[in-house]
Amino acid sequence: MKKLLLPISWIYSVVLFIRHKLYDWNILHSEGCDKPSICVGNLSLGGTGKTPHIEYLIEHLSPTKRLSVLSRGYGRKSKGLVIAKEGMTYKDIGDEPFQYFTKYNNITVAVDENRVEGCKYLINNTDTEVILLDDAYQHRKIIPGLNILLTEFYNIYPKDYLLPAGKLRDIRYAAKRADIIVITKSPKVLSPFIQKDIFNKIKPLPHQKILYSYIDFLSFKPLNSAAASIALQNIKSVLLFCGIANPVPLEEYIKENYNTLSTIYFKDHHDFSESDIDNIITNYNDMIGKNKIIITTEKDAMRLIKSSYLCKFEKTPLFTIPIKVSFHKNDKQVFDNEILSYVRRNT
Predict the structure, then answer these.
(1) What is the pLDDT of residue 245?
(2) Are strands 221-222 and 237-242 parallel, antiparallel or unpaired?
């Protein structure tokens, strides 16, 4: 099937290449940002870990700098510029921006399809010192001060194909704009031979740094009162439901720690319906034994916590599993120094 789709991918690649060259030659207009701006993005459809990397930057920078996060707000029901405020839900700003807003009370979270106008608003109407551009790598109308490109360890972009034959939404040529290339979701133990092979496949430009990050799964957090009284050390079985681009690392982690795992997967950013929740609870009740729980991701929880469906889990222990990214060995120091040096030079 992939071979049959390659001609379509090739035509798409020509269109994208022309688009990029029009921006490169200034035929199509791009604008910079008057404040330090850091873009975190990828070339693929998703699943590279943009959200935890944005959160890493928030936690790294917010103690000393006033931050804004600007996102498109994928999946929201609103249009145009929206500044997150109390009383809003994921339907107003999207699940990932809602997650930032829920977790961090010392930052501004904004969504706007037009990143240029969104940046201008934040600069002119807030006290922001640094803007984090969430998933803006393909948004050529804005020129970030620093570009961070994420690519998955097990599916780095040089090995992938453009849509519809593969999962790339942009051509490999676009990677040349990156200042830092982060190989995400890598194993915690890395072979130098594998690193050399990845380096040779990516062929970074002289100014580009290749760094490696991995996912740390944190302690489960109860999402309802039924979960709060559970002794997790006694749990044998887990039902995992989620709507994320790549649930495989999470699935593997749970399999390593629990005897039995059942899964219910939805498409990324899935808007849960009442029948979805009923199906999840039915599957949970059908699991054998009493020492069992339900787990979902933080992002999926954002689409539940203010919905009328959360009460359906009243008698069912529901947990979220937070994650964070860590960097390998010296890569953390290199990454942190690159970020801080850029911000210092531009503030």
Answers:
(1) 87
(2) unpaired
Is residue 1 scored above 80 in pLDDT? no
Tokens of 190: 């890395």
pLDDT (0 to 100) of residue 4? 87
- HEC string of the chain equals CHHHHHHHHHHHHHHHHHHHHHHHCCCCCCEECCCCEEEEEECECCCCCHHHHHHHHHHHHCCCCCEEEEECCCCCCCCCCEECCCCCCHHHHCHHHHHHHHHCCCCEEEECCCHHHHHHHHHHHCCCCEEEEECCCCCCCEECCEEEEEEEHHHCHHHCCECCCCCECCCHHHHHHCCEEEEECCCCCCCHHHHHHHHHHHCCCCCCEEEEEEEEECCCEECCHHHHCCCHHHCCEEEEEECCCCCHHHHHHHHHHCCEEEEEECCCCCCCCHHHHHHHHHHHHHCCCCCEEEEEEHHHHHCCCCCCCHHHHCCCCEEEECEEEEECCCHHHHHHHHHHHHHHHCC
Percent of the chain with pLDDT over 70: 100
Band the pLDDT of 25: cuts 50, 70, 90.
Answer: very high
Please write the tens of the pLDDT for every residue from 57-94.
999 999 999 999 999 999 899 999 999 999 999 999 99
